[in-house]
Structure to design on (178 residues):
């Protein structure tokens, strides 16, 4: 490991919500949601999803946590936590990119899921879905992990990133920093 080695963490999860189960069924995949974190604690996780726990219609950019909100209620959600090495400069750019998303009103890109499923790359202004958001912030930080447009990236695509190391597979409620 390099002396000044930093990491970014991608959490791919299987949530048994109606939308999550629909995504799993149509895509034939096990994991249906992804988020990004700047440290391994998973106390601050960034994504695009529901803003209120019980309201699926109010969705957009969210700050999640493994121990509160959605994942506290869905503590039995299966996750794969990936660690990707980045330079200190890339990590700083990632922080800046996430901060920019926090300053803008983003909505959930439900139609974008259909375009993604059909393999049609389509950006929709201030509308994103979870894996599109994660791919976009990585691209903006010049962290190259995908060879396709962010609007075509699916949560399970992160599982095959060559530079990603799987550091945890299991229930989010049982996760502890090693």
């Amino acid at each position: 490991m390099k002396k000044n080695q930093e990491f970014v963490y991608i959490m791919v999860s299987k949530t048994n919500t109606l939308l999550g189960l629909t995504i799993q069924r149509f895509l034939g995949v096990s994991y249906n949601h992804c988020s990004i974190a700047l440290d391994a604690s998973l106390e601050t996780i960034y994504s695009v999803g529901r803003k209120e726990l019980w309201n699926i219609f109010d969705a957009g950019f969210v700050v999640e946590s493994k121990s509160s909100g959605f994942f506290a209620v869905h503590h039995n959600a299966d996750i794969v936590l990936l660690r990707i090495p980045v330079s200190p400069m890339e990590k700083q750019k990632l922080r800046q990119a996430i901060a920019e998303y926090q300053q803008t009103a983003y909505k959930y890109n439900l139609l974008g899921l259909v375009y993604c499923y059909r393999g049609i790359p389509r950006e929709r202004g201030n509308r994103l879905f979870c894996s599109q958001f994660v791919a976009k912030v990585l691209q903006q930080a010049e962290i190259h992990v995908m060879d396709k447009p962010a609007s075509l990236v699916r949560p399970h695509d992160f599982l095959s990133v060559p530079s990603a190391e799987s550091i945890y597979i299991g229930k989010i409620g049982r996760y502890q920093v090693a």
About this structure: The chain has a mean pLDDT of 87.
